[in-house]
Amino acid sequence: MLTRKMFRDMKGNFGQFFSIFILSALAIMMFTTFQSSTLGAANAMQTFNHKSNLADVWMYGENFTQENLEAVKNLKEVKDAQLRMMVTGKSVKQGNAQVDVYLEDENIVTKPYVEEGAEFDPADTKGLWLSEKFADYWKIKVGDEFSVAYNGITITGTVRGLISTPEYEYMCADTDLDTDVSNIAYVYMSYRGFPVRDYVNHLISDDVISISDILKNTHALDEAMEKLHEAGMTENDITKEMLLEMIENFSDEKLFSFMPYTQLIFTTDVKDVFSLEKKVANAIDNNYAVYLDKSSIPGLKVFADEMAQHKQFSYAFSIIFVLIAILVIVTSMKRIVEQQRTQIGTMNAMGVKRFKIAFHYVSYSLVVSLLGALVGLFVGPMVVGQELIDVFLGWYTLPGWKPAYSWKFIAMTFVIVLVCAGTSYLSCRKLMHVAPSEALRPAPPKAGKKCIFEKLPFWNKLGFQAQYNLRDISRSKLRAFMCVFGTACGMMLICCGFGCDDTLKNVKEWMFDKMQNYQYQVMLKDGISTSQADKLEEEYSGELVMTDSIEVATKKNALHKDKATASVVVTEGKGYYNITDVNQNVVEVEPGTVALTSKLAKKIGVKVGDTVYWHIYAKNEWYGTKVSVISRNPSITGITILREDFEKLGGKFTPYMLVTDNKVTKEADKNITVVHNQDAMLSSYKDTMELMYVMVYIMVMFSALLVVIVLYNSGNLSFNERVKEFATLKVMGFQSKRIRRLISMQNLCLSVIGVLVGAPFGRMVLQSMFDSNGDSFDYQAVIGMPYYILSGAFVLLVSCLVSFMFSKRIKKLDMVEVLKGME
């Protein structure tokens, strides 16, 4: 009997029960959507890193030896260690895509994860292992030949397997703004498989290295030079032809001294890996330039920052949704149960046990909220969460990434259901203590008393409509608070969503109208000589640009805790490649100084006038320079220095890019690899922002739905609480149109307050979201007035539509039925 009654009541109050169902589903869905993808990423990363035996420390230097490796291995804190070398070349048949080639003679640390084909074998000098995403794009299969052009030679091997590696969870070519899997690849191959003889011959033939360079950096010619000295000859007497002949007689083993190991990587169980730096440095006699952990490796860092932002996003917005859902559910369930006062009194009078009555009303909220939560538990992770992961996988590489469930989901479901059930129980319990004779009659209206607004000096000058609504708000504080709070949160989130769009437009203008003041971006061949680059610059009237990875500190030879990883940009100051200050105004770097980006300046505690010390990753030579400008860049963290000053410090200017307003084609010179025009760069930028726009769409959709549900519930509760008052007003001669205006004005005023309260928080939350993305990006949150107006107009439009929905109910109001219990 009671079950049938429950379904009849649900049918009669379908709107309210359905909104509770939707809110329960939305609250759980919002929470689980983002959490499931974040947890799934954490689980997949843990498995991926374990299978690959991902390194904990990366050491970069100019020439690591086997003795260095043994010294590190002998440290009790070190588990596994190995040497390797990395060179960057271009694919021969795949559009000159960037290819990072790892040369290894061991497969112990950071092992490639094989997606297809054979396991990596460092003894196989004829084969190579290629990144799976690049191979998939270019339709390269296991068994095909693949060639890489590097420094004037071609490395060719048979593809033995398709791989992934944690170091490239995020990957971006040096010439791209963001991920383009068609233009970036990585290859693992045998160290001994590198064509070292061809490489050395090319370097000598093209005058890239001379006898002086060889004697300075290797011991390969020591024995030969001793014999020449005995014959009365010096290095100045050795011609290029003589040098090539000497090299021809060397064994391959000896020639590999021209290909020194530049990376030493190892694993350890020590959590603070930088506490080992001094010990490791002493073990290898300080023969290194850079000592890094996982948080400094770009492929790991960018993805980790993305997940951290994703996690913060999930908590911040999920909590807002859950709080609003709980607030709306509490007020709705309380009102629904109180409307059953007469039925509860009747059941009490008939002798129905109190626990049955309580369970009956608890089951209202239990069934509805539990069904909603279960829908959210399924749709959140398995539908929306999976779609979100699929979007992420277009930009990142993480095998086995799928939505994951957590005990937090059950806990959140339990909280939602418990709040609903608890509210129903408390409301029902209160009514069960009322004597049946009293409960059979409608609840008497609360005793009237002066509200706080009546103390206003201009109270008597207000019209009936304003006074009536202010008194009603004073009597129904929780309902009014729910409307204002819910509307404010909705307004804040809608502003965030629209603000993302405005911010991305601002970044586009910032980058392409102010910083990149050129029409063509010409990518130069690796190993191009300075004279060749200068010739191209003169021919096309442009500006050469160099970038490199550096470490920055406030003192020389600082340990990791006192320094930061960043980038150096070397420009010629010709106005093509600009920098901007923190207000996005174009500024110039003063000669003899550097510009420091604001995030980096804040991180290391530096201001204008201070001196910073920095060195390029591959070199252990520190430079000290004065800071003249605190700049801001949306995508680069580091320093900017003029070419003239960089060369005065002793740095070797190695440009990778020429920027110009004059049209350039790839075919114009053999040293040009790729040419990007302004349209292509804009198109690439829009593609990179696709993921951000997905987040915007989700945010705006959920926020709009939240506003609709909150305002609908507020209007519904307002109508049900005042139905007797409306009936009385109709008896007194008030027309339905005027009563509808009473409801509309209250909803509208509360909505306006919510809009005004929520709007300022939109930009604050948006900036916080961008700031949580680590040091990789520095976006300045922007929300233009048109978007504030659009967001506010949407909220107010919903408020008006909700009021219109209740106008028909006012017309159909049965005055006799409503008022017959009030005599």
Report on this model:
The chain is built from 27 helices and 21 strands. With 823 residues, the chain is an alpha+beta fold. The strands form two sheets. The chain has a six-stranded mixed beta barrel with strand order 2-3-8-5-7-6. A six-stranded mixed β-barrel has the order 12-13-19-16-18-17. Helix 2 (14-52) packs antiparallel against helix 11 and helix 5 runs antiparallel to helix 8.
List keywords for this structure.
823 residues, alpha+beta, six-stranded mixed beta barrel, six-stranded mixed β-barrel, elongated
In total, the number of strands is 21
What general form does the structure show?
elongated
The poorly predicted ranges are none
The largest β sheet comes out as: 6 strands, mixed, barrel
Helix content: 40-55%
Count of alpha/pi helices = 27
Overall mean pLDDT: 81
**Which oligomeric form is depicted?**
single chain
Sheet with the most strands: spatial strand order: 2-3-8-5-7-6
Terminal CA distance: 31 Å
Structural class: alpha+beta
Give a brief outline of the structure.
With 823 residues, this protein is of the alpha+beta class. Helices cover 51% and strands 17% of the residues.
Describe how the helices and strands are arranged.
Layout: H1 2-12, H2 14-52, E1 57-64, H3 66-73, E2 78-91, E3 98-104, E4 113-117, E5 127-131, H4 132-137, E6 145-150, E7 153-164, E8 184-190, H5 196-205, H6 211-217, H7 222-230, H8 240-248, H9 252-255, E9 261-268, H10 277-283, E10 290-292, H11 298-338, H12 341-349, H13 354-392, H14 407-432, H15 436-439, H16 464-475, H17 477-515, E11 520-524, H18 530-540, E12 543-553, E13 563-571, E14 579-581, E15 586-587, E16 593-597, H19 598-604, E17 611-616, E18 623-632, E19 638-642, H20 643-648, E20 657-660, E21 672-677, H21 678-688, H22 690-721, H23 723-731, H24 736-771, H25 785-805, H26 807-811, H27 815-819
Parallel strand pairs: 3-8, 5-7, 13-19, 16-18
Antiparallel strand pairs: 1-9, 1-10, 2-3, 2-6, 2-9, 4-7, 5-8, 6-7, 11-20, 11-21, 12-13, 12-17, 12-20, 14-15, 14-18, 16-19, 17-18
Helix pairs in contact: 1-13, 2-11, 2-13, 2-14, 2-22, 5-8, 11-14, 11-17, 11-22, 13-14, 16-24, 17-22, 17-24, 17-25, 22-25, 24-25
